[in-house]
TrEMBL record:
InterPro entries: Acyl_CoA_acyltransferase, BioF2-like_GNAT_dom. It comes from Spirosoma linguale (strain ATCC 33905 / DSM 74 / LMG 10896 / Claus 1). It comes from the Bacteria. This is BioF2-like acetyltransferase domain-containing protein. Residues 159-277 form the BioF2-like acetyltransferase domain. Pfam families: Acetyltransf_6 (PF13480).
Length: 332
């Protein structure tokens, strides 16, 4: 059977074949499905294409999503560059093969796109990466199949103490309750009021629009689980989980000062861990690089899983001068 590797635009992709390939992959992640990519890469300034290994029967043997963002210089349309989107911490080459040959995919990617950055599960050392800066990053995961008692035993002493305090507050004080909801607006309000200002550069309004669209897509497919911690009728913390058959992703969360003091997010996470413990499920914290947040996730006994941050720039001197000059001018 002859296979052919080619870049296919979103409009030309066989969506069913693409999603079937992602679903059968040993590295299956929700981020790879076409509907997820459509949600986090909104037109006109974002799009995505696929590098696809197609056999003679038209079946997709392996696929690699390539997220693109339109960059401008001095107000003039510049070019499409590879750019990791929000709510998509890493991507992958999706294939049912245990060890797919990833080198041709990276060769195609670097040859076609001269500038970009991408977070990817695989790094292929078998090709020339002299023009690519690669840095190891990690997410944190918990294997819930071992049962709750085993998982709880790996919590740090401080996490166990804070959990006991939270349980006491929630069980002994009728002011606090945990509730399930489908309304993400309180979660976004909590984030705006308590977290957005701490993010370098702030959070643009379009990012909230994007999140609403993504949440709707997740809800439509039965992957959406949103829970709140409520005190005296006021929502003080919330967490949105993506619940796949074998993986739970801690996608988004926020808390007020009162919610943080009451360890409400610890309660929300532990509650779901208890519910899913003993099942063949991985709990993924989607760890950022911020040390304090990583430490919080590690306190649940989560272990590190690696992925790679890749960055490359093969633009001409003039192109780079325009790019850097325009970035500097916008800051004036």
């Amino acid at each position: 059977m002859i296979n052919m590797l080619k870049i296919i635009t979103r409009s030309q992709l066989n969506t069913d074949a693409w999603n079937a390939c992602v679903a059968s992959s040993r590295h299956v992640r929700v981020y790879g499905y076409s509907w997820y990519l459509d949600a986090v890469l909104p037109a006109p300034d974002w799009q995505w294409v696929g590098i696809v290994n197609v056999d003679t029967f038209g079946a997709y043997q392996a696929v690699m999503p390539v997220p693109l963002r339109r960059k401008r210089v001095a107000g003039i349309l510049y070019r499409w560059v590879v750019h990791q989107p929000f709510f998509c911490p890493f991507l992958s080459i999706f294939s049912a093969a245990e060890w797919p040959d990833t080198a041709p995919f990276f060769e195609q990617l670097l040859r076609r796109f001269r500038y970009g950055s991408l977070f990817c599960l695989q790094r292929q050392p078998g090709i020339d990466l002299s023009s690519v800066a690669c840095h190891l990053r990690t997410t944190h995961t918990i294997d819930l199949s071992v049962g709750y008692n085993r998982v709880y035993s790996t919590y740090t002493r401080d996490r166990k103490l804070n959990l006991r305090r939270a349980r006491h507050a929630f069980e002994a004080d009728n002011r606090w309750t945990l509730v399930e909801s489908t309304d993400i607006e309180p979660l976004l309000t909590l984030f705006r009021e308590n977290h957005a200002d701490a993010i370098d550069g702030g959070v643009a309004d379009w990012a909230y629009v994007l999140f609403r669209k993504l949440a709707h897509s997740l809800h439509e497919r039965g992957l959406f689980l949103l829970r709140y911690a409520v005190c005296d009728g006021q929502i003080e913390a919330g967490a949105l989980f993506v619940c796949e058959e074998t993986r739970i992703t801690y996608l988004f969360n926020a808390a007020s000062p009162l919610g943080r003091k009451a360890n409400a997010r610890t309660m929300l996470i532990d509650q779901l861990i208890q519910e899913k413990a003993g099942q063949p499920v991985i709990f993924d914290f989607e760890s950022p690089e911020k040390p304090s947040i990583r430490s919080f996730y590690q306190s649940f006994g989560a272990i590190e899983e690696p992925f790679w941050a890749m960055r490359w720039n093969r633009l001409s001197a003039i192109e780079n001068w325009l790019r850097i000059g325009w970035s500097y001018f916008k800051k004036l």
